[in-house]
Design a protein that fits this description.
By secondary structure, the chain is α+β, with helices and mostly antiparallel strands. The protein has 5 helices and 3 strands. Helix 1 crosses helix 3.
Length: about 120
């Protein structure tokens, strides 16, 4: 699969560059002559998208919807996510916790919780 095809499928589906996400959408809109239009037409020819031409609600642009085969291709052709170090994983967890604690205090709390759970 061409990189530009994969980029369009991932964007259309709301996935990141590694194919992760919730597929909260399934379409792409572009006008004939636009930067991505030719690639979208190629995706239609491959069976990965369906084209609805000259849609008035989109100002006459073409509406491309991702097919089930396109969803599968996007996931299968996406590269594996990069390895994340243990330290970066912990810091990401800290940010996601959105606590009012400093990172050091949060680490000490997590260690205390781990010890208590082991008892």
């Amino acid at each position: 699969m061409k990189p530009e095809h994969l980029d369009i499928l991932q964007h259309s589906l709301g996935l990141d560059q590694n194919g992760r996400g919730t597929m909260h959408r399934d379409h792409f809109v572009t006008c004939e002559g636009g930067e991505d239009h030719a690639a979208c037409v190629e995706l239609v020819e491959l069976g990965f998208m369906i084209r609805h031409a000259n849609v008035s609600i989109f100002g006459g642009g073409d509406f491309f919807r991702v097919t089930a085969a396109g969803k599968k291709a996007a996931v299968e052709n996406s590269p594996a996510p990069p390895k994340v170090s243990r330290g970066k994983q912990r810091y990401s967890e800290y940010l996601a916790a959105d606590s009012s604690r400093s990172f050091g205090d949060w680490l000490r709390l997590k260690e205390r919780q781990r010890r208590e759970a082991a008892l």
